[in-house]
Amino acid sequence: MVFRHKKTPIERFESHVAVLDSGCWEWAGTRHAHGYGLFHNGYDESGRQRRTLAHRFSYEHHVGPIPAGFEIDHLCRNRPCVNPEHLEAVTPTENRRRQGPRKRRTHCLRGHELTAENTYTFPDGRRLCRTCHVVAVERYKASHVEEMRTYQREWKRRRAAARRAAAAALTSG
Predict the structure, then answer these.
(1) Average of pLDDT values for 74-102?
(2) Are 2 and 43 in contact (CB under 8 A)?
(3) Are residues 86 and 121 in the same domain?
(4) Domain boundary residue among 58, 83, 104?
């Protein structure tokens, strides 16, 4: 049995909005770990709740569809804000550029200096500390040692079988 809401999605959405003196419409409902509002927008065919980011729902309802490949930027820099006047559809590159202070960080979250040699910059503007990446890869390898050994043994076995088959084909043909 699928639960049906008695209110329309817009009525439910508006019941979670608090208007602040700053002009922001702050989301008072469930929030994502990074501070963005989460709106439960009905149910899918299997009966599971559909969740969407509240600011995206607000933009799509008040302004229109979000163009493919675009993100919604909070002009007010307030992540829980769902005021469509404070939201703008921008490219990912532009959104990263506008974030400003994060681009100018001198150290990663683990304290490694972000130098030209130690930093990989993705085309969309995100940056990756190479030292942290190496540590993460080593941690992954350490936690998957047995899987990797099994894979290597299987690969060597297949390679040896392929060599034997090739040698047999040369001698018989």
Answers:
(1) 87
(2) yes
(3) no
(4) 104
Count of domains forming the chain: 2
List, as own/partner pairs, every contact residues 68-73 make where C-beta atoms lie below 8 angstroms and the sequence separation is at least 24, other chains included: 71/95, 73/98
Which of 48, 81, 44 has the alpha carbon at shortest distance from 62? 81
33 with 112, same domain?
no
For the chain, the first-to-last Cα distance in angstroms comes to: 68
pLDDT in the model for residue 1: 47
* Location of structure tokens 């060597």: 156
Predicted TM-score (pTM) of this structure: 0.56
Is there a single domain that holds both residue 46 and residue 14? yes
The answer to whether the beta carbons of residues 112 and 55 sit under 8 Å apart is no
Whether residue 130 sits in one domain with residue 95: no
Q: What is the per-residue DSSP string for 46-96?
A: TSPEEEEEHHHHHHHHHT-PPPTT-EEEETT--TTB--GGGEEEE-HHHHH
Range of the domain at 38: 1-104
Nearest to 126 by CA among 98, 103, 106: 103
> Which CATH number goes with the domain that contains 51?
3.90.75.20
**Backbone φ, ψ for residue 91 (5° rounding):** -70, 155
Q: Distances in Å between the alpha carbon of 119 and those of 12, 95, 99, 135, 139?
A: 44, 20, 18, 14, 20
Per-residue pLDDT at 101? 57
